[in-house]
């Protein structure tokens, strides 16, 4: 099983290096070992990695080209990713590994979010929320704080895609930061940094009125200050920088 775990880590490294054939080769070896040992939890992890690989391929294919044939190929790979994630979820349930099950449910929700970017069909959003609701029950029951933060972040992403800025930032993204702010782990910090990036995008964006964005940023600062100015100093700083940029953009437009 140690060998299978090592092979799985190698497959993950190759996934980051965009080497799909090597990813599949090492994951197939990992799965073979877990099957021989009857390690259901290991199978859940391996098939989850397969799902991540195909989701990544589909998203990259979509981003590179919007030609119809590429979109069809992307959806085919999204469908394959879903098959692997569902298989992984089934193994996690059989092994009663709730942490792994919650992780895979969030991966399924992220898959639906990517599909929602490709094709804004409400069915993808609803399906994503279904998976998030299931993951949320597990996360709250077992106090998996990272999963709770990721769930709120994904809900914010769906809301942001629908143009619901206030819901995205004041409800979901703010809650993500409140959940994760006190944890030094890199994975916890990554989620907060993604929220910081969203705030930066908000200040630089031109799709919404400066007045709406300024009001939202003021409310967001109030939330962070009420939750602890020191804890959220970087986020407050990011909000203030966004405010300045929005003010500059508004005055530049007025002069034009």
What does this protein structure show overall?
The protein is mostly helical and about 260 residues long. It has helices at about 1-15, 20-35, 40-65, 70-95, 100-120, 120-140, 145-160, 165-180, 185-205, 210-230, 235-255. About 85% of the residues lie in helices and about 0% in strands. Helix 6 packs antiparallel against helix 7 (about 145-160) and helix 7 packs parallel to helix 9. The longest helix has 27 residues, at about 70-95. The protein is globular and about 65 Å long. The N and C termini lie far apart (about 65 Å).
Main features:
single chain, about 260 residues, mainly alpha
Draw up the topology in text.
Blueprint: H1 2-16, H2 20-37, H3 40-64, H4 68-94, H5 98-118, H6 122-142, H7 145-161, H8 165-180, H9 186-204, H10 210-228, H11 233-255
Helix pairs in contact: 1-2, 1-3, 2-3, 3-4, 3-5, 4-5, 5-6, 5-7, 6-7, 7-8, 7-9, 8-9, 8-10, 9-11, 10-11
């Amino acid at each position: 099983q140690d060998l299978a775990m090592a092979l799985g880590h190698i497959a993950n490294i190759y996934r980051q290096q965009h080497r799909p054939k090597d990813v599949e080769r090492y994951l197939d070896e990992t799965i073979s070992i877990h099957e021989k040992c009857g390690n259901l939890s290991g199978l859940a992890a391996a098939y989850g990695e397969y799902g991540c690989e195909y989701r990544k391929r589909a998203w990259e294919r979509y981003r590179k080209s919007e030609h119809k044939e590429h979109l069809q190929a992307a959806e085919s790979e999204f469908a394959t990713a879903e098959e692997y994630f569902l298989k992984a979820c089934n193994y996690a349930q059989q092994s009663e590994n709730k942490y792994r099950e919650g992780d895979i449910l969030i991966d399924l929700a992220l898959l639906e979010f990517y599909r929602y970017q490709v094709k804004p069909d409400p069915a993808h959003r609803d399906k994503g929320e279904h998976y998030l609701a299931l993951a949320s029950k597990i996360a709250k029951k077992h106090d998996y704080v990272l999963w709770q933060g990721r769930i709120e972040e994904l809900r914010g992403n769906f809301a942001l895609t629908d143009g619901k800025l206030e819901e995205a930032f004041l409800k979901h993204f703010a809650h993500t930061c409140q959940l994760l702010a006190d944890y030094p782990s890199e994975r916890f910090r990554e989620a907060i940094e993604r929220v910081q990036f969203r705030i930066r995008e908000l200040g630089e964006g031109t799709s919404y009125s400066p007045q709406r964005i300024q009001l939202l940023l003021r409310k967001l600062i109030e939330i962070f200050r009420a939750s602890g100015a020191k804890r959220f100093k970087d986020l407050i700083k990011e909000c203030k920088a966004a405010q300045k940029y929005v003010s500059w953009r508004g005055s530049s437009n007025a002069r034009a």
